[in-house]
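Side project, low priority. Logging it here so it doesn't get lost.
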Amino acid sequence: GELHPLALPVSASLAREEGQHSGPALSVLAPAAPDGRPPGARPSAAQPKHDGAIVPRGAAARSCALLMAGVLALSAPASASPALRAGLAPAVRGCRGGSVGGGCAGAPVLRALRGGDAAPAQWDNLFKHTDREANVQMAKFAEQAERYEEMMQATRAIAEMGVELTVEERSLLSVAYKNVVGSKRSSWKTISAMEQKQTDEKTKALIQSYLHKVERELSDVCHEIIGLLDQYLIPNAKDAEPKVFYLKMHGDYWRYLAEVSGTSQRAEAAERALQAYKAAQELAVKHLSTTHPIRLGLALNFSVFFFEILNMPNDACTLARQAFDDSCKDLDHLNEESYKDATLIMQLLRDNLTLWTSDTNAAYTGPAEGAAPA
């Protein structure tokens, strides 16, 4: 299995979802929060940053350097397919012999990846290759450079090929969309809080207009990935594991829509999320082990849905507690790597149980027997 998280700034009063992590893990073996890659991956990247200048500075310079490193890696013999090499040849030439200008050695690479002085269409098609491997590589470059909108374009191009995605491809797609939507969700929460505190009517109207803009952006991205899931990803998934993964994603993005929707739209989004989560849960219980990261991640996000969207705290606690207890019983059978993955999500489940029961001073500490060492 693999994790697909995103480290977002979350208030201490909010429940934790898959991909959020703070404090020591439940197990001494559990790693720092992963970034959505398969087990053993490096830490999560930061929020998306967009550099628009040819002369990059700060975060933009880092993006430039990472892109250059990625392109140079492809210039080694036999490291890429002929089609991929041809598509990236301008960037490779820019890295090898492009003039260094603008005070940044990566500037020629950035110009090459953007299409240089060529027509904008060449730039736009950089993340829409007909070659599958090229899209995978461009998604990786965009991830390293923390340019998640472009990573989203590359992974969308793969999904629209109508093929069954590999574990790596679905991980890249999940990371891309979750980073883009996660940034917009964070913005929406900040602006919404500003609106609630504002007393001046004229200023409040301006904030509301801004809030509606962010809502539209968030809604567009959510509907895009939901469309990909409905048309390509779920129908093309042959095994239970990817089906559970995609159905969970389906539920997640309907939940994000429910968070920002008005009363009538919220009810519809919540119902669709519930249907997706239930379908995923049925498959997960039948086909995935209690310690499988995808099953645990599903239980985590499904319980958050019960608590925050449906306002059903008892159901949320029951689901989270059941998942935690069941996985505790099977931890002894896992190897070290799987143990780390499972206990990281178990920590988030326990965090939520503690948060949700804190009002009654009944913080949940897990079963008396079978728990992983603290």
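Brief comment: The chain has a mean pLDDT of 76.
Revisit when time allows.
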